Amino acid sequence: MGTIGIEWVKEYHGLAGNLTNTKPQAEGFYNTLSATKRFNWGDDLAWDQDFEQSGVGSPSSGTDTTWADDVDFVFFSGHGSADRFYFGRKIDDAVAKNTEIRWGDRQLEWITLDACNVLERDGVFDRWGWPVFRGLHYILGFHTTTSDEANRGRALAQYLNAGWSVREAWIKAAQDTEDSDVWWAYLRADADGTDTYNDHWWGEGHVSPDPDDPTILFYARATC
Predict the structure, then answer these.
(1) In angstroms, what CA-CA distances link 88 with 53, 66, 195, 205?
(2) Domains contained in the chain, number
(3) Residue 193 belongs to domain with CATH number
(4) Per-residue pLDDT reduced to its tens digit, 167-213
């Protein structure tokens, strides 16, 4: 059985506007997906360094090998922008930046960043491509802003449990919970001998070998 973790932020303490539904959205994923639950950190217990590589960037106090990169699937719900996502407590600097991220060199296969604009198309390969993908299969997110809603994590987990592919489950969950002015997006990696396009959740179908040294990145987006 695969392993999962979630982080969510409602209270931003003036660093950004507070949100309402990030906790039920992330916990809907956590409590629905057939998986071994590893961590559920919210508000002041959700830290940017949990997603960052040790020794990379400034501050360089990343702990992803203990948290985000120590499970198979992570779901984050909170604020975001084109090259980062945001937290409410300054344990590090309250910002998980693309330049401080190296995912998949330990375990992580899939991550949902349910946050506005993180996968905005222009420059996406420069922001979230190499060197972020170090074995990671997918980043799931949005090209546009997205609403503060409660049900997308649960919907994603239900589709994964039902045997939908990872990409199809994300698209359908986004379509179920957003209007047509919102654009879902994903970024995935492949290499010789891998097939991430057909990835499923563990126990529900094909899971590709890790693209540890990816040779190509694919980006997709469309209206919900």
Answers:
(1) 20, 20, 37, 37
(2) 1
(3) 3.40.50
(4) 999 999 999 999 999 999 999 999 999 999 999 999 999 999 999 99
